[in-house]
Design goal:
The structure is a homodimer.
Chain A lengths: L2 H14 L7 E6 L4 H14 L2 E5 L5 H10 L8 H8 L3 E6 L12 H10 L1 H8 L2 E6 L3 H6 L4 H12 L3 H15 L4 E6 L3 E6 L6 E3 L4 E2 L3 E4 L7 E6 L3 E3 L2 E3 L2 E6 L2 E6 L4 H8 L8 E7 L11 H4 L5 E7 L18 E7 L4 E5 L2 E5 L2 E2 L8
Parallel strand pairs in A: 1-2, 1-3, 3-4, 4-8
Antiparallel strand pairs in A: 5-6, 5-18, 6-10, 7-9, 9-15, 10-13, 11-12, 13-14, 15-16, 16-17, 18-19, 19-20
Helix pairs in contact in A: 1-2, 4-6
């Protein structure tokens, strides 16, 4: 077994979910991730916790068969709920042998199934949970990389000194958390301002998401003004949307365009009122993620980028008394900040061309 | 997908476990059995039941990793117990990519783990459960067959008209259930008598075991007299024992021998007092099982054989007021009855050279 798999398992157990003796653990994984599941079992045995392995989320071929055979009426399965109610630690390993396995399931069937499983999802989110990635060949294919290069990419991004990451990212949290106005400028097409006054900035250092590597907050919904060109591609419902352009007035999208699949972008924005407002501002700080791989677990943490999501704001980012943007969607879009770009906070430049003011090489 | 896999899935659902809308189902399977798991999901979706897939029993590589890392103190995991307590139907699919995967786990560790999981096993047995087999290459290898020949073998034995089997076997149940004395004679070495008075004969027609294909009961423990040569091999704890010879007086083994691995046989018989007595008499009636495959799920149902187990008697076979043989073990051993053999019940020949008296070709 590649020693990086055991390292990955130890980071999940010891850093991300803080595994303890007696913990009841659920690992959900596709068989292509077997090596990581086995390495996790070594750690779980060593610690004295209790593993159960399922393939509810990741066994897409069986899920497709089930959903295509079912009518659209689902109930919340009492046995699956009972399992997760007694679970302390939930580890979901993304990996697939075909990332388009559910492409011929009717979206309304999937939606009805997810709706019925919402209480199970809520219970998962109340455990010490972690979502991570195993570098399976099909995931490498989605990233347009060889399997070996993708393995290097994933394990470089995941197997890090996360305490050091927390400390490094903490410098950006200290700037953003007490701030009022944020301005994002990039090239000719992006000049956007927003208020984050009263909202909280979260330091994502590899706990719920592994890899981590971003700091994120929410704008005050009505405060967003200006225009932005998301020059990194967006992969939504199995389709790519490129060069998304959004123009905001009083926090709401008043004009939009895209180079490819603009109709899909329009559909997202028309979901509900909240889908035309920004629910998240994130700053990618994981420089081991140095290329786009059509996988938001990685893409949004890419070094020298910022991302914004139209739609729902995360609870933990919204300060007491502030409005929380509500929507059925949360769709992240990414701006490359590595060239001809600045982030200003309360009138002061805090990042120029990807370099933060607390880093070497920053030019005032 | 081979159409025989869908047929297998439909027999499990519609015959073995009588699947109903709203049933909470657990399928435990190794990934090599994925096709059958997918086919079961089609049926489960169609019926409107709720599937959860686990690999607790069959994920031997992860189990080995866990058990080797653990100390020998285990608790009953509350989440695994909660899952099975809310489960209506439990389907275990035997299949492996290496049947010797746990050969380097210490037996005392496995025993301690199984002891802690006993409440979970008890809950499984209170569901509508089925144990079946998927013909994976490693299982074919154990059977010393090509994968294709083994697929044919498994699906011939499994995909049958089980209502017709029940009716055919019912004729033997009608003979054995009210009987007193049973005599098994084969060749020069086997001449054994026992009483089954007051005990019940069970018709195994593919419910808990798929394939089914036997009728079985328990002898009155002290009644077994004579000698028996089990001329089919026995596979116990990963080792083969051949030509087991047992001599009984007053129901207890007073002499024993084996051609190969006699020490292992001695160990079995020395487990406890009950291990020297017979707990089961079974008559194999599935003639599609026409060869020995080192898999008791099949071997004990082989046509033209009888099997006896030293050790524990099954609850359902012991009549009210009769003694139930108790032991920590239940080890089945098989006699070939196809030549120079008779089964007599209360002094009447009911099978000669494998042919029952209710079948064509029977010679009085």
């Amino acid at each position: 077994m590649d020693p990086r798999i055991r390292e990955h398992a130890e980071i999940i157990a010891n850093h991300s979910v803080d595994l303890q003796a007696g913990d009841n653990v659920v690992i959900d994984a596709h068989p292509v991730a077997e090596d990581l599941v086995v390495a996790l079992h070594e750690v779980i045995g060593d610690v004295g916790a209790n593993p159960v392995t399922t393939s509810q989320r990741t066994g897409k071929r069986q899920q497709r068969a089930y959903l295509r055979a079912a009518d659209d009426e689902f109930e919340t399965p009492a046995h699956e709920l009972a399992l997760i109610e007694e679970t302390d630690v939930y580890i979901a390993i993304r990996a697939s042998d075909n990332v388009t396995q559910t492409s011929d399931v009717a979206p309304e069937t999937s939606a009805a199934y997810q709706q019925a499983h919402r209480p199970i999802l809520d219970e998962r989110l109340s455990t010490r949970w972690c979502l991570t990635q195993y570098p399976a060949p099909a995931n490498a294919q989605l990233a347009e990389m060889s399997t070996e290069a993708y393995e290097n990419f994933v394990w470089d991004a995941v197997n890090k000194d996360w305490a050091a990451v927390r400390e490094h990212q903490g410098q950006m949290v200290e700037i953003l958390d007490p701030a009022d106005e944020v301005r994002i400028e990039s090239g000719d097409a992006t000049d956007l301002t927003m208020s984050v006054a009263g909202n909280r900035t979260i330091n994502d250092h590899g706990e719920h998401n592994l890899p981590g590597g971003e700091v994120f907050t929410a704008p005050v919904p009505d405060s967003v003004e200006g225009e932005v060109l998301f020059d990194m591609p967006l992969y939504h419902q199995g389709r790519e949307i490129t060069d998304v352009y959004l123009e905001f007035e009083d926090g709401t999208v008043v004009d939009h365009a895209a180079e490819k699949n603009e109709d899909l972008l329009t559909e997202v924005l028309n979901t509900d009122d909240g889908a035309r407002r920004i629910g998240e501002l994130g700053i990618g700080m994981n420089r081991d993620i140095d290329q786009f791989t059509y996988n938001m677990l990685f893409d949004e943490k890419m070094g020298d980028t910022v991302h914004m999501a139209v739609g729902r704001a995360y609870d933990e980012t919204v300060g007491e008394g502030n409005e929380q943007n509500d929507s059925a969607v949360h769709v992240d879009m990414i701006v490359d900040m590595s060239e001809d770009s600045v982030i200003e906070v309360d009138g002061e430049v805090v990042q120029r061309d990807g370099t933060f003011r607390f880093e070497d090489g920053f030019e005032e």
